[in-house]
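Researcher: Structure prediction, please.
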Amino acid sequence: MLTTVIPFFTHFIKPIGDYAVPSQFALMQGDEKPHPLCVLAAEELQDYLQNQNEWQHNFGLVAEKGRVIGKMFGVLVVQNNENEIGYLAAFSGKLAGSNNHTKFVPPVFDLLTENSFLNKGMEELTVMNQEIKKLKDLDLVVNKELINQLKTKRKQYSIALQNEIFNHYHFLNEAGEEKSLIDIFEIAGYKNPPAGAGECAGPKLLQYAFQHQLKPLALTEFWWGLSPKSTTWKHKQFYPCCKEKCEPILAHVLNRIDFKYE
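Model: Predicted structure follows.
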């Protein structure tokens, strides 16, 4: 019988016979420590990050010109249909200017696809910005009404574009039930999803696991690199999934694996 090869499913390098497999899904919360298998997976991923030469990203760990962008990574310990234990890895947002890299699960929806509606939408917004600037430069007072009309049009277009982005994000749970990002956050009491929702590591990992019939066992995230904007994020430290962007998504995707996100 042939074994099904699932892309991005990574076997542990170190033997895991002495590690206890969690009896129910283990998600790091608050000040809790991550599950030992998550720690091991994170250590292996960190070793890869330290030594890989497939791409370049300025984490601020070595002397390098340009903007320093530390990054949140996630590891999800999973079990496949052959009862093998391994893990998946993901990063939040983009990495080295791309959504797709060899070691990491793909995004739920790839916003960077060439000729996508987002690229065309951003081009349209750029044209509006240029028109507004041109009118201001010609005569701000005379063109005030037209400028305000263009600003209103720009705002409406921007909102519509953001909603179209959200409509392309759909998340599964273990039962195969699918909900859109807008529906998920509406149920949670939000008027709109926050910008960047759906791009964090944790939700990406669970989505990929459910798409490929992998059983989630344990999940955690860690920060890699320097953080120029906040002292909260420390290199190599573990963190729970964020509350604002992830909690409503996790409440949906985890409700079928005996877990209530609190």
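Model: Residues 10-14+22-109+171-253 form one domain.
Researcher: Thanks, that helps.
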